[in-house]
Design goal:
about 75% helix; elongated; Serine Threonine Protein Phosphatase 5, Tetratricopeptide repeat; about 270 residues; 16 helices
């Protein structure tokens, strides 16, 4: 059971130079959201034992929460210096680099984390995302599959495996993985739209229409679903209904610059 700030402060009265107790005090402050006090406790711990990698790692986490990212990176790197097999520190570095768009660095750090602790699904997931961002789709698929192996019920892992498979033209896998995404997250309109799109590519038009109608029942003006519905109706030979769907979609997105690419696409679909 985690000790409270009060309990740890009391213990430190008789052993004020115990780096482990100071680290635990920092953790208590961290859990309470008091990152400045957590930083202070971790620094006291490190001053007593500069090689104490756990305190260095946690100091990095406190800095990260306070958005002192350069300090966080330096603390995690110091933790790795004293514990070269510290997979959590490698993961945090990789996650930070991924979030800030440094994909080469993200891949390097996440690969280290995965080699040190292969059973952490999130490591494989973010490594897969970094590979995807650098168009290394086969590597991305391998990592997403590993993430699913260690945690089969996380919808994000299935979603991103589906997304990558679709981009590689593997519509069967994409459909199967988006279906699994919906098993664990049934209200995900984006996943259901994509599932219908994959079914469309597989020429399963009736099933695709059934799925897309579920999306539009929840949100009748969801642009991707309206577009997919129009395309399905077109394939089913329902030309008039397809044109109605595309024209209605144009009205929905008429004053929305975020959908300019879709407007351009629709101009080639809508007949005067």
């Amino acid at each position: 059971m985690s000790k409270t700030v009060e309990e740890l402060t009391e213990k430190l009265k008789t052993n004020e130079r115990d780096p482990e107790l100071l680290k635990e005090l920092g953790n208590a402050y961290f859990r309470a959201g008091n990152y400045e006090k957590a930083e202070e406790a971790y620094k006291k711990s490190i001053n007593i034992d500069p090689t104490f990698y756990k305190a260095l790692y946690n100091l990095g986490n406190a800095y990260y929460r306070m958005e002192f990212f350069d300090k966080a990176i330096a603390a995690w790197q110091q933790a790795i210096k004293y514990k070269p097999d510290f997979d959590h520190a490698y993961f945090n570095l990789g996650y930070h680099y991924f979030q800030t768009g440094f994909m080469r660095e993200a891949i390097s750090m996440l690969k280290n984390a995965a080699q040190l602790n292969p059973a952490l699904p999130d490591t494989h997931h973010y490594l897969g995302l970094a590979y995807y961002q650098t168009s290394q789709f086969e590597n991305a698929i391998s990592e997403f599959k590993l993430a699913i192996q260690y945690d089969p019920e996380d919808p994000d892992y299935h979603y991103n495996l589906a997304n990558t498979s679709y981009d590689m033209g593997d519509f069967e896998t994409a459909a199967a993985e988006w279906e699994l995404t919906l098993k664990y997250r049934p209200d995900d309109s984006k996943a259901r739209n994509n599932y219908a799109d994959a079914l469309l590519q597989l020429e399963q038009y009736d099933k695709a229409l059934e799925e897309i109608n579920k999306v539009l029942k929840a949100d009748k003006d969801y642009p991707p679903a309206l577009c997919t519905r129009g395309e399905i109706l077109e394939k089913l030979g329902e030309k008039d209904k397809s044109q109605e769907a595309f024209k209605y979609l144009l009205k929905v997105i008429e004053d929305k610059p975020a959908w300019d690419l879709l407007k351009k696409y629709l101009k080639g679909k809508v007949k005067p």
